[in-house]
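Postdoc handover notes: sequence design on the structure in folder B. Input tokens:
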């Protein structure tokens, strides 16, 4: 599979800006420790929460307890947005990933994700049927989001907004 091609939005970019390469987006998603997950409650109100996530194999993965608001929202509407980036105004790259959250149940992928959570975030998870377990009282579903659309916001001259359509 070839790298997605970015399209610069000139209306939200500085003169002379160019589209950010996918490698910049991939690096940002791989190295980020915290993302902001946006879901929608059943009554239409938004819900946003910070959480760690792992980017691998073309999807962004996160976990949530079965009774948490995120899981309740996802049962009704799997469409999500995850964002990450920097708190700097004039440097870095902010990335927004839009797609559908799909529950991960395969043992091989869950095992790989548990390894990556330990390697990248120093979180220990045991793989159990249907998700992760941190201890006897805390189990979590794992979701993967294959991006349908990604926006990358380059901060600092030249400012840029690059759109990647993947789905």
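Designed sequence:
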């Amino acid at each position: 599979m070839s790298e997605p091609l970015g399209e610069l939005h000139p209306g939200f970019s500085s003169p002379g800006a160019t589209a950010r390469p996918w490698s910049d987006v991939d690096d940002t998603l791989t190295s980020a420790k915290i993302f902001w997950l946006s879901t929608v409650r059943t009554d239409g109100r938004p819900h946003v929460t910070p959480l760690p996530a792992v980017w691998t194999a073309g999807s962004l993965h996160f976990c949530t307890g079965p009774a948490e608001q995120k899981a309740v929202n996802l049962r009704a509407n799997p469409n999500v947005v995850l964002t990450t980036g920097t708190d700097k105004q004039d440097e870095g790259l902010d990335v927004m990933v839009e797609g559908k959250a799909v529950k991960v149940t395969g043992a091989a992928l869950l095992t790989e994700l548990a390894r990556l959570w330990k390697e990248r975030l120093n979180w220990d998870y045991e793989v159990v049927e249907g998700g992760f377990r941190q201890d006897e009282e805390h189990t979590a579903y794992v979701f993967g989001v294959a991006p349908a659309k990604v926006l990358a916001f380059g901060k600092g001259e030249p400012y840029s907004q690059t759109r990647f359509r993947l789905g």
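Context for whoever picks this up: The chain is about 20% helix and 45% strand. Don't rerun without checking with the PI first.
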